[in-house]
Design goal:
Order of helices and strands of chain B: EEEEEEEEEEE
Helix content of chain B: under 10%
Oligomer: heterodimer
Radius of gyration of chain B: 13 Å
Number of helices of chain B: 0
Structural class of chain A: mainly beta
Radius of gyration of chain A: 14 Å
Chain lengths: 125, 108
């Protein structure tokens, strides 16, 4: 059974930093691209960042470029989101999501077949 | 960035009725569209990928159709557990992948 577990959510002041973690199990972590998707209170879903299985490729939405960094440690089946210079508009529940894998086992698609339960990040003074 | 517009914003139906939810893209996404269900306090769940393929474990009462810019999610006969918020998401043109704003399906 695929399981994703986020940690690291907290209340942080504007301008502060936070690192989220997501540990995965029940699938071949090294072959799986992973993403962070956030949801502001009472709002819809917003993609934030993605990282390939090898960590060779990373992508970010424009509003977080230069402030957020995605990374992964395949030896520990964990990936991360380092968030710096946090703003009030970053307040959201952050979900980690596993990309749907290609049937042949190599490569992935940009939709998400498993999600964690989310980590709440609140940016407020 | 491709904008996805879902309609209606809220749909009120009774158990046993048929639900039809729409998602319209600002430009063609081919068939690279997914649907998710989200219940209160839960993470989203993948229902449909590539416009019409049910994800693993999804009941047959859920079906998807469409291509290019117009897509539909149909629930043939609503069960009590189907009342939730539904999102569409495109993967044809990324980054960024984009989601619709959601349709809330509520009990009438």
């Amino acid at each position: 059974e695929v399981q994703l577990l986020e940690s690291g959510g907290a209340l942080v002041q504007p301008g502060g930093s936070l690192r989220l973690s997501c540990s995965g199990s029940g699938f071949t972590f090294t072959k799986s691209a992973m993403s962070w998707v956030r949801q502001a209170p009472g709002k819809g879903l917003e993609w934030v960042s993605s990282i390939s299985g090898s960590a060779y490729s990373t992508f970010y939405r424009d509003s977080v470029k230069g402030r957020f960094t995605v990374s992964r440690d395949n030896s520990n089946n964990t990936f991360y989101l380092q968030m710096n210079s946090l703003r009030a508009e970053d307040t959201a529940r952050y979900y980690c999501a596993k990309h749907r894998s290609r049937p042949e086992g190599v490569g992935y698609f940009y939709d998400f077949d498993h999600w964690g339960q989310g980590a709440l990040v609140t940016v407020s003074s | 960035e491709i904008v996805l517009t879902q309609s209606p914003a809220t749909l009120a139906l009774s158990p046993g009725e048929r639900a039809t939810l729409s998602c319209r893209a600002s430009q063609s996404v081919s068939t690279y569209l997914a649907w998710y269900q989200q219940k209160p306090g839960q993470a989203p769940r993948l229902l449909i990928y590539d416009a019409s393929n049910r994800a693993t474990g999804i009941p047959a009462r859920f079906s998807g159709s469409g291509s290019e810019t117009d897509f539909t999610l149909t629930i043939s006969s609503l069960e009590p557990e189907d009342f939730a918020v539904y999102y569409c998401q495109q993967r044809n043109n990324w980054p960024p992948v984009t989601f619709g704003q959601g349709t809330r399906l509520e009990i009438k």
